[in-house]
Structure formats: structure tokens, C-alpha cells
Amino acid sequence: MNIDASISAMRAADTRLAVSANNIANMFTPDFKASRAITREQAAGFGVDVYTVATDHGTDLGEEIVDQSLTSNYARANGVVIKTSKENFGTLLNMFA
Using CA atoms, how far apart are residues 19 and 27, in angstroms rounded to an integer? Predict the structure, then answer.
């Protein structure tokens, strides 16, 4: 089982959380424009790419809270995939030892 897709998804989640944290930190900065971290699937399902785009508006705290919650769950799910893959690989090795 290839875990590269889950690793890239966790890196994307890290970027999404960092962008959201920056938006919240600058919420009251005059003329600040929020950014969004956008993820897209790589070709042939080899993971995800993440890129940041500027918006034309300030920070919406409700949007940031929802995004952080979803991103946290996204990262947690990919962590479980990596952990399960590691455990399954260990079991497979034990079968041949």
C-alpha cells in the first residue's frame, strides 16, 4: 500500500491550517485580505497539491472556524491511514519471519 497520497494530504492540511491561522491573526489588520489554501488531486491519484490564493475580502471568522475543523478531521483521517498501513506492513513482515 502506497502512503504517499496520505502524506501529501497531511502536508496540504498543514498548509491549510497555517493559512487559516494567518487569516485569523490578521483579522483586525486594516486592509488585510484573507487567503485560501486550495487543494486539488494530483494526476492518477498520487496525492494532492495545495496552492494559496488571495481573496478580495477580509477574514470571515465563521468560515475560518469551519475550515479549521474540517481540515483537522482531514488530517486525522490521513494519520489513521498511515498508522494502519504501518501496522498492516508489520503484520505482513511477521507472517514471513
Answer: 12
Using CB atoms within 10 A of its CB, is residue 96 exposed (0-12), middle (13-18) or buried (19+)? exposed
Q: Tell me phi and psi for residue 37, to 5 degrees.
A: -95, 120
Residue 35: beta bridge partners? 54
Tell me what the mean pLDDT of segment 20-26 comes to: 97
Distance (Å, rounded) from C-alpha 2 to C-alpha 64? Answer: 32
pTM > 0.70: yes or no? yes
Instruction: Provide the domain count of the chain.
Output: 1
What residue numbers bound the domain in which 13 lies?
4-95
